[in-house]
């Protein structure tokens, strides 16, 4: 099989990867080839959001992308958000508000919400924005913007509380 | 997933050459890879078109030219689109999830395939997936299925939102093929099934989409209304896109399009004309909806869609024109 040599900058570190199969998704490249298991595989079909990572600053489903398509890209995974002794404000807010039960969806929730707060800072509208040209933070906005991340334990109420607190701490209102 | 050969194109010409040689274009991949995992799609060769530079939004004759690779999220957030074509922003934002919209592209969204469960299930008969095998949806679980433009071979819908808005906005699709470029009105891009439900659209073998052009805004009031099982991240049961201009109390221009009722966004000049010259009223809206839904037929579980489509369109028109329809006689 053809060799695919790709380079990814993951959480600030350049990683080279030789793939002998183009079918490897970005998710499987992270988990199986680079032993970065923070990013989770849930449905593997883009429905649950457990595999959410940022590619060049944008949140995407890593299960619905081929690793070879990301040659040269900058990837941020949950391992890049914070450390156990140095949590990101959002990670701390999830702890404070108990924004999980089993925890399996949490890495995806954290990466997704981190990117979501940036999207609001960039004034990106959502379908529930009354005014498309001036976006503000509300619980409805948080729920709509996080609809790509499922939590089968249904910790949604606490997830919304955590995201609201972290967003407000960053001056997003 | 079946194995395939992967190549990357660095220009639109290279992408078109690869397509001519039989390669399947992959952009965001959010629909294609999902279908490849199910082995509903089994391309031998993929050409990655993400680096062809077709990701620009440019002014064009008072309208916009939207490159094939413009991501859904970027198009919805584009300042001119938000201001002059809010219908397009709202339709895009009503679809999928933020993660998907960050990856999915303008051309890829037009190329997305139906969500018919029998199309996805390799054990079922499906003329769209496997021509000649039959259609298990006809007498099956068909509450999501089409009520207009169907055939005995297929009752699948085109599931997207963006194209419904583009049809109401009179957009055009720019296509490149071996014999040069051609432009197709978006309303003629998707095909009705007839006896070839495997062909979703008019793109010929070897052709690729270069972009979509929007004519200058009409200045009308634009509304996108989507009805679905869940409030977010769900495909439409029915959607309605309207762009209506009212002058001196009378409707002077109307564009009405229904989504998820057929294999293509559903619009008719006759239904648009029903409204022109009328004062905005519930009765006028219902007349237009009845004209647009002429010939609609359910297949059992989706019978409800005929009434739902009528009410959704009337509600969208009421919102666009500021008419209060609560309490009026039906």
From TrEMBL, chain A:
Record has Iron as a keyword: yes
One matching Pfam family: Fer2
Keywords: Iron, Metal-binding, Oxidoreductase
Residues annotated as domain 2Fe-2S ferredoxin-type: 4-81
Family matches, as CDD domains: fer2
Protein name as annotated: 2Fe-2S iron-sulfur cluster-binding protein
Spans traversing the lipid bilayer: none
InterPro entries named among the record's database cross-references: 2Fe-2S-bd (IPR002888), 2Fe-2S-bd_dom_sf (IPR036884), 2Fe-2S_ferredoxin-like_sf (IPR036010), 2Fe-2S_ferredoxin-type (IPR001041), 2Fe2S_fd_BS (IPR006058), Aldehyde_Oxdr_Iron-Sulfur (IPR052914), Beta-grasp_dom_sf (IPR012675)
Superkingdom of origin organism: Bacteria
Annotated organism of origin: Paracoccus albicereus
Automatic annotation (TrEMBL), chain B:
Domain FAD-binding PCMH-type per the UniProt entry, residue ranges: 1-219
TM regions (residue ranges): none
Keywords: FAD, Flavoprotein
InterPro entries named among the record's database cross-references: CO_DH_flav_C (IPR005107), CO_DH_flav_C_dom_sf (IPR036683), Diverse_Substr_Oxidored (IPR051312), FAD-bd_PCMH (IPR016166), FAD-bd_PCMH-like_sf (IPR036318), FAD-bd_PCMH_sub1 (IPR016167), FAD-bd_PCMH_sub2 (IPR016169), Mopterin_DH_FAD-bd (IPR002346)
Protein name as catalogued: Xanthine dehydrogenase family protein subunit M
Classification lineage: Bacteria, Pseudomonadati, Pseudomonadota, Alphaproteobacteria, Rhodobacterales
